[in-house]
Amino acid sequence: MEEAVSLELTPDEAARITREQRETKAAKSKNLLEVRNLSTHFFTPDGVVRAVDDVSFELGYGETLGLVGESGCGKSVTALSLTRLVPNPPGRIVAGSVVFDGVDLLKLSEDGMRKLRGKEIGFIFQDPLTSLNPTLTIGYQIAEAIRQHMGLSKKASFDRVVELLAKVGIPRARDRLNDYPHQFSGGMRQRVMIAIALSCDPKLILADEPTTALDVTIQAQILELISVLSDEFGTAVLLITHDLGIAAGMCDRVNVMYAGRIVETGSVDVIFERPRMPYAWGLLDSLPRLDDVRGDRLRTIEGLPPLLINVPDACRFNPRCNFARDACRDHEPELTAREEPGHFARCWATDKGGWIP
Amino acid sequence: MVGFVIRRILWLIPVLFVVSLITFTLMHAVPGGPWDREKPLNPGTVLRLNEIYGLDKPIWQQYINWFGGMLQLDFGPSYQYRNRGVNDILSDGWPITVQLGVMTFIVAVGIGIPLGIFAALGHNRWPDYVATTISMVGIATPSFVLAILLIVIFSVGLNWFPARGWKGPNTWVLPVIALAGYQIAQIARYTRASMLEVTRKDYVRTAHSKGVRNSAVVVRHMIRNALIPVVTILGPILAFLVTGSFIIENFFGIPGIGRLYIVAIGGRDYSMIMATTVIYAFAVAFLNFIVDILYAYIDPRIRYS
Amino acid sequence: MATQTQSLPGVAITARRSEGVWRDAFGRLRKNKLALLGALGVFLLLFAGIFGPLLAPWPYQVQDLAAVVANNNLPLAPFQNPSHILGTDSLGRDILSRLLDGAQVSMTVAFVVQLVVLFIGVPLGAIAGWFGGRIDTYLMRITDIFYAFPDLLFIILLSVAFRETAFGRALNGVLLVFVAIGLTSWVTVARLIRGQLLSLKETEFVEAARAIGVSDRNIVVKHLLPNAIGPVIVAVTLGIPTAILAEATLAYIGIGVQPPRASWGTLIADGQPYIRSYPWLTVLPGIMIATALMSFTFLGDGLRDALDPKLKGKQ
Description:
The complex is a heterotrimer. Chain A is of the alpha/beta class.
């Protein structure tokens, strides 16, 4: 664990020291987050939905990792599982380990977990309108985590709130401390959420589709903000999105998820330039391009994702795959290595001895 | 906020006007006069009485006179008790009715809201079932049925509490419970439903993600938001309380305005009926006004509309 | 609302066919035990109300003075005399028969009032909602005025005002009760319908209907109103307990149904002086009122949950 940073430093100095500590750890190639065989199931009257099925990945200090996939593939549930915020009933983490900074979160007591939430791990939710309490001032809501975890006096915490608001780009911060969420625009509200997530200087931020609910013009600003702040503080970011463009612009590495499984993982360059899984090809192909001929239909991946109840042992993408063969229906492929280091894919066809070279 | 309050106060004036107009019109639409008894009176006597009570003047003038008097809290003479004015009669009963109303309200809110919260927090486990059962029964049992049951069980049967009168805390228990029963059930039901809805809200998840203690999440984030819809039904509940109180007063022999009201209805004391109706209606309007202010206080979004 | 199928080989995952709003709702209703209990209660009460007086051992107004005299001039207790199974009141009138008559009065009031509500509320609400604009504003002002006056007070006022008239005396005062309660209850339904129409009339299927030349009247009657029916059914069912309670209250005060007809409210008023010595005179009609209220409330709640599960307070 890090040494506590003395409060007599200026905020910038404190940030610099924190960042240096984290970079040192990164250089020692210790991972901030190691997820192994995580499985989260939902127990419904219609059956058990395996929303997250045996998912494993790592995240380094200060790294930005993208978790990409279409709606319903399990990416949000994965993020919620990391901090044990999955609604129970009907959901439950049934297996796996989540080692954060050396501690397995799934084995912590509830109180131990609670102490980490907000302090070491921050969350940015998708819809800032519903994610903020309409009856409390934004000043109070940002200060809440600070006062809970950092034991500052009321005045000191509100001072810090003003700093944070300035950092996330909200003008006249001190005047707006006593305003309510409904008095802000959508983009401003999301900045408030970012301020909340960063309030205790966490090591990791989970950003669940942070820009989906916002106007396109605001999206770029918010993403820029997340990027700048995470660099400045050395914070690792797990960015969840269905938008490939966002992933391409923000992430160091990308995990592609489908039907509760990770089907491809690698650095952002590799995933976008040399993907080795038909699903990823379909995703990239479906992006409209400026040089498309007008009047042509948009390209889609036919079919729909499977229901995650009673999943058989087969490649989950195969009903929609143009390259599927018998092997794909008999047995689910493992995540196996591809050419570049750190590049893995879950596909018989592109594997060694497969039928796509 | 101040503008909001002022606008709401101004609303009360037209309400008072409309209520008094409707009441006045209906009372004077009654065929025959206030002097009809079993034995018809001498026409000469009727003329004289009409003169004394100002009933020979044109209707609109009677209304103005009455309205003017009302604003000064002078409701005119009683037609039933010839030598007393309405105010005089009402002033005896007035404090008692207010006392009954206030106590019932405190009991209703003080039991209803915690009961609802308790049920919601223990959702699908025994606190929920117990509280929900109490609610169900309470809603279906109107005040005078509950009054009957309470009297038969606790007064006649067990002799713990007296069945009539209003002297001392002993006599307060049964009437207050009888009147509050329905309100407790309604408030508890609404509070429970509202809490359950709030549990699923995104901002509760945000609060948890900040590492806030569970107890703090419940109090700071859930209860305050859950109470907003509950405050909106406080209005109709208060109205119910006011208009239901006269039945309870009659049942338990409590000498408040309500009893006088019922006696006046039976005895055709029209000025008394008008006075009590206007007082009750205005009380309801005023209480609704208080509820509106409370609502704006709890929910900041309302203040700016 | 059909769910799509995606069958993985070796496993056939069948989607659930959507069955239409009404079948879905009916299915949900059947599973709701409390609602079924309520439905049973409603059925029994309706039966008592329609056939009760025909099957009753005594006409409700007949005084069996002989039995009373034989009992030391005291009312008979239940099970004391086989020809008066639930006892008699102080005038020798059979309690069971009077309870059944009360059932008839209550059921009649409840349903007739709702008819009045539908006849006034639906058209007015539809007009306000469909035409919008100034007509809507005027109508809303009028309903606001009705709102300012507490219902019960208004009903009492009306009853007091007109009880001496021929209109007020018709049917032992029952007609006056219908009108008085009906006049205060139509507002809720009118607002419901208005709200539904206001939101539905901007939808695309209305545009489509207009485009193919369906007349306004037909759009409202054939397309919009059926969609608004759900909440209206719920409101009507839940409005019945209010009507029953109002009727009982009026009778209790003495300005509702007039003697010798027996409303449960009158029975309670009659029995009140004897509450210490002959509690059954008040307890029995009290139980009837409670049963009626509970049955309709449970049924109404069940209907509301069945027609819109999102409104339910549970998960």
